Amino acid sequence: MNPVAFTPEELQQLKASFKYVESNSKQAADIFYGHLFDIAPDLKPLFAHTDMRDQRQKFFSALRVMIGSIQQPHLLVPAMTQLGKRHAKYGVRPEMFQKVGGALMMTLEEILGELWTAEVEEAWIRTYTYLADIAAATLAPEGH
Prior knowledge:
By secondary structure, the protein is mainly α. The protein has a single domain, classed as Globins (Globin-like), CATH 1.10.490.10. Helices cover 69% and strands 0% of the residues.
């Protein structure tokens, strides 16, 4: 899987938008999980025994690693592979990543407001698609 190719401007926009969202991380995480459970109520049972405060921290910690190493596939691919394997144990299926991506894009748009430009959206879609494809590949049944 080839890494996402960004222009310096796109990379700067991606990182700046994440920094802004991260500065509002509690609100962003609450919005994200609200959107996720609205879009996919079937995912809520996966979090039944989860401390959501801890989950919010894990979510942003994972995003921080992903965005920070987006141009370093030697670091990113193993991290995303581990994330996928860990989530497989919770019953996550590859098709669930699309719902998570939808909730993430809705959250970013809501938090970023007028900073959510077409260019920023495109950078996030490309980034999330790349990351989700790596993680989802670890969930695919053997032989597929």
